[in-house]
Amino acid sequence: MNIILLGPQGSGKGTQAEMLVKKYGMNYVEMGNILRSIAASDNQYAGVVKKTIDKGDMVEDEYVRLIAWDHINKQDKEKGFLFDGYPRSLPQYEHLQDMLRKFGKKIDRLIYLNISQEESVRRLSARRICKKCGEIYNLITNPPVTAGECDKCKGELIQREDDQPEAIRHRLQLFSERTEPILERARQENILMEINGERPIEQIYEEIVSRIWTR
Length: 215
Ligand SMILES: [Zn+2]
Fold this sequence. Notes:
The chain is an alpha/beta fold.
């Protein structure tokens, strides 16, 4: 089974991905992490990826394709994949389909965790990061034991520049422009599963699991 999991920032995508990977045992492809580790390595694409990430831009399709191919090709395809935060554009989506076709596979499901822009802004504005160790907290969903202080290292918790409401709205705008065409395509292909993400984690998870095999 090959699944794509998409959702705006703050949709709780990462949490659902972890639970699904644990249940179904597929390969987990979290493109954000892959790109960050490439940026920090001596990989041939490290320079260009790092520059793009540091600017807060999206890595170009051309590089994402090459990197995705490198990564996916090394995994056991029989275990299936859960793609988290990838593909991010229609060309990337089409390329992923081509790749899977080469292995005799296809995308079985695209799960879209839908939350409103207001809710996304509310959740992301509540995000705090430890100045010392980088641990991430959320004042709504995952608060520290002592207010303003990191549980792990007692460091000071701060709000990142790009977690200010204006910056968040800008990112959400880019996300919806890029993602809308993918959702539209998946709808035509009858593999789109849209989920209301403004509910408790357990409820969302149960709905995904109960609907995953049905059309
Ligand atoms: Zn810390």
